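Recap from last week: sequence in, structure out.
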Amino acid sequence: MQLNRSTDYALRMLICLSRASGAVSSSKLARAIGVSPRYLLQIGARLRDAGFVHVGHGPAGGYQLSRPPAKISLMDVIMAMNRKGNVSVLPDKRPSKEDFHTLECIYRQLEKGIQRQLESITISELSQTECEESDHMRGVGLPMH
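Predicted structure tokens:
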């Protein structure tokens, strides 16, 4: 699976908000994650509609998380930002051939495993020191640098 740029920025935005002690202005968030203020507003609207953020207006306004970061999983954000409404890691659906049944079973197992992994990683975990090794990453055999 490949994450699109909007989903990556949405995750970065939520991480920034989880580290903040109060509301964060859209201009400050845009600078922090490296997007234009206009693009940030689009991402913010999607996150607001999904119930992840609250937007306050006025001089003390800005973005804040609507729920604890430990209650927002990577999968939650991916699903909210994915316009198709689903996340698939399998190759394009093709007519099944009997000769490749085992391979297709492996693909389904991989997809389930990846989805479980995405559901288990939260914004809270992602907001920790970025160089910190994660038990989740070691558990799936990903090299940590």
